Amino acid sequence: MSVIYLLISISIVVALVFLYIFIRAVKSGQFDDDYTPSVRILFDDELKKDQNKSEKQN
Amino acid sequence: MNNTNCFHCGNDIVKVDEIVFDERIFCCNGCKTVYEIFSLNDLTCYYDFENAPGATPQDIKGKYDFLENEDIVSKLLEFDEDSIRIVSLYIPHVHCSSCIWILENLHKLQNGITTSQVNFHSKKVRVTYNPIETNLKEIVLLLSSIGYEPYISLENYDAKKEAVDRSLYYKIGVAFFCFGNIMLLSFPEYFEVGEFWIEQYKGFFRWLIFALSLPAFFYSAWGYYVSAWKSIKSRMLNIDIPIALGIVVMFVRSTVDIAFNYGQGFFDSMCGLIFFMLLGKLFQQKTYNFLSFERDYKSYFPIAVTKIHSDGTEEAIQVYDVEKGDRLLIRNQELIPVDGILMSESTRIDYSFVTGEAEPIEKKSGDKIFAGGKQLGKVIEMEVLHSVSQSYLTQLWSNDVFQKKVDQKYKTITDSLSRYFTPALLILAFVSFGYWIFIDTSMAFNVFTAILIVACPCALALTAPFTLGNVLRIIGYKKLYLKNATVIEQLAKVDTIVFDKTGTITSNKKSAIEFFGTPISETELILVKNILRGSNHPLSRRLYEFLPQTGIKKVEHFEEITGKGISGTIDGKTVKVGSAEFVGKEKDNQIKQTSVHISIDNNYLGNYVFDNQYRKGLEKLFFNLSKTHDVKVLSGDNEGEREVLERLLPKTTELVFNQKPEQKLAFIENLQRQGKNVLMIGDGLNDAGALAQSNVGISITENVNVFSPACDGILDASQFPKISYFLNFSKNAMRTIMMSFGLSLLYNVVGLSFAITGNLSPIVAAIIMPLSTVTIISFVTVISNLFSKKD
Question: What value of ipTM does the predicted structure carry?
Fold first, then answer.
């Protein structure tokens, strides 16, 4: 029956890991600007497409 | 693609100036150059994300020479080591995804820049560069050449590098962690039906829950204890006292409960409460970090000026180093940093920052010029009369009003309510305790704690932040940006509204000129424009700037008759520009508007009517406002416009003219002494004192990001007619708060009736508390959204 101790402690540890990740994320400044990254992530694709285009033209 | 707009900046193109390049059309050489830079560097993607995202680069020759001065540069740098330097630049033009893209690709345009990162909301770009390969001046010039001129002012100079305060996020994270886990671990006992299995592990679960609640209790909720303690010390009962009391009592009671095996306690409710209240705080705190409400003269002043030494050499020096008797060089579009005497022949100075008056003022050699004016025209020299700290503008700023800390100026509605709430709660708790102690001692303690727990005014405390936070967001969307939520409460109380005249109820836009008459041809236009060139009359200057650019032609027999008009001959044609009689038209008394009449070869063509430039919707707004409020107009100008204003505005409007900045401030103070709640609406720096003194100061601006004096709110000029709507809405917001106060009191009454009768079990507390929180939040959100739709 003592498996319950094991299970609960595992679940708490998992929760602690998430808390730790959250605090790390806040510390890194991830929540300071919530707009730019969402735009930035779209840029790479556009750029590649454009390069392909110019290569084809060449 | 739109054919009549510039490919780069999207402005309308004047046919004469149109430039066609690479099958695209541009409005000016500057825009074309930017396009050229981008296309050379394979960066035309810029135009893919957004249509015409650019800005026309301004002429900035010599403006940034001060960046060669290492002392100044080092003050601006965020990080400085041998091969790495980091600088954050504020760029007002950042407005769309194209901007982010081009600014993050700066390294493709200039060697030595390693990375650049944009923060969209604060409109800042953080550039990392190698000082050996490039320097700050080159970077700034590059940014300016592609239309992203950074705004460097004295404010940057001694700005402390503030560490970002993220503790609220940590607290919320920790509280949520505790709340979530405790909730799950508490569940088994809620549904306990005397099962052997749950009975067996009760102790383990309970003590684990206790351990998990500690971080939330000690760390996340700490701010409430501090604030409650402070308010007790300063004898001002605020809402944090019952909250802190509730949390502490809940914690102690629950600990006692599990220690003596009375029950499982209220740890889940406690953590949930802490979590929701912190969330409310965050909601209230999340305001517009891209707007600066605490502007003082520093955000207007340049960081460096060009000093001319006696031997004629020029040097960029820091503004604070300017001394009396120095000779300074001021270029076109530069701000005059100190009071002084003009040494050059003549110039025009735009004092619109200071007075709101858009019309530049002509100054001759030997005239006194004041700090805050913007120089228009050729390079001038001036001699300094006062150092920066002594100049007129800075002195206005050191007025006492600005020293006052605004934080404790007002009591919020929640605080004034809790003044009654806290004592009532304590009395109720003690009375019930006194009643029960004669019946059952242990029950008496139970009831006492239960009352304090259930009455913990979480819903009450959440109402205001959520309602006001939501209202703040809604009116922010409608382009009135308020400094914080308390301003809404103040706005609802306003009974007197004072408008500044120039720049506030008048518009700064120059486009308010219309032509009436026979359609004027292009050749005739050239004639008119050329004849206007010679005149210095304010109306001529304005009309000259309004008309499109044309070629220059020689004017013969030019004559300017004061008070009448100008005439001259071009290409053998006699052109007359001026009053109706002067050009030979019978005067009609119907229109009282300012207008300039045109005739060519005694052939009357028509007239240009200068709109008196009052903002659109002014009459209706004043009519609406005067029904409910006292409306007054303050003006720094003379009485010239009194007649027009009296005709335009309701009879009850008080008009006061010839007011100096100090007088405006005193005027507001005087009203307040009569017990009025004053809303001041102004724009220029001359209103800054009045804006700070008034209960609510709102500054109107055409460009929200750059120029507005310190105030409680910034209103986009296009939203001017909506002022009465905003006032109504804030009143309704307060109504919403009162309604939900009623709702949360209802919850408290229900909860208290359980508590007083000694029936508060954890399950009842666990249901009532989150339920009240959730209903309150959804109630205020829905209601305030409904009110926002009402005009």
Answer: 0.77
User: Are B421 and B460 within 8 A, CB to CB?
Assistant: yes
DSSP state of B545: H
Nearest chain B residue (CA) to A28: B166
Contacts with A, B 161-220, CB within 8 Å = 164, 166, 169-170, 173-174, 177, 180-181, 185, 200-201, 204, 208, 212
Angle between helix B441-455 and helix B762-789 axes, rounded to 10 deg: 20
Q: Residues near B636 by Cβ (< 8 Å), separated by ≥ 6?
A: B355, B356, B357, B500, B501, B502, B658, B659, B660, B661, B664, B686
Residues B13, B6 contacting (CB under 8 angstroms): yes
Structure-derived torsion over alpha carbons of residues B255, B257, B260, B262, reported in degrees to the nearest 10: -160
Residue A1 with chain B: CB contacts under 8 Å? 200
Residues 6+ apart with CB under 8 A from B262: B256
pLDDT digits (tens, 9 = 90+) for A25-41: 888 877 777 777 777 77
- B170: nearest CB among A26, A32, A36: A26
With cut-offs at 50, 70 and 90, classify the pLDDT of residue B399: low
Contact check, Cβ <8 Å, A8/B118: no
Q: Tell whether the model's pLDDT for residue B592 goes beyond 60.
A: no
Confidence band for B552, pLDDT divided at 50, 70 and 90: confident
Q: Does A27 touch chain B (CB under 8 A)?
A: yes
Q: What's the CA gap between B268 and B213, in Å, rounded?
A: 8
Q: Are B409 and B693 in contact (CB under 8 A)?
A: no
pLDDT digits (tens, 9 = 90+) for B702-714: 765 555 666 788 8
pLDDT band at B174 (very low <50, low <70, confident <90, very high): very high
Confidence class for position B181, pLDDT limits 50, 70, 90: very high
Residues 6 or more apart whose Cβ sits within 8 Å of residue B590: none
The minimal CB distance from A35 to the residues B121, B164, B208 is found for: B121
| Alpha helices for B559-641 (secondary structure H) | 580-583, 618-628
Structure confidence by residue, pLDDT tens digits, B505-537: 777 655 467 777 777 777 778 888 888 877 766
- CB of B687 within 8 A of CB of B657? no
Length of chain A: 58
Which residue among B117, B173, B201 places its CB closest to the CB of A19?
A: B173
Whether the pLDDT of residue B768 is over 70: the answer is yes
Q: How far apart are CA B186 and CA B90, in angstroms?
A: 51
Nearest to A22 among B42, B48, B173 (CB): B173
pTM exceeds cut of 0.80: no
Q: How far apart are CA B508 and CA B418, in angstroms?
A: 46
Cα B183 to Cα A20, B176, B279, B516: the distances in Å are: 20, 10, 18, 75
Distance from CA of B708 to the nearest CA of A (A): 24
Note whether A44 contacts B: Cβ–Cβ < 8 A: no
Return the pLDDT at B297. Answer: 63
pLDDT tens sequence across B679-706: 998 876 677 778 878 888 888 877 655 5
Distance from CA of A33 to the nearest CA of B (A): 6
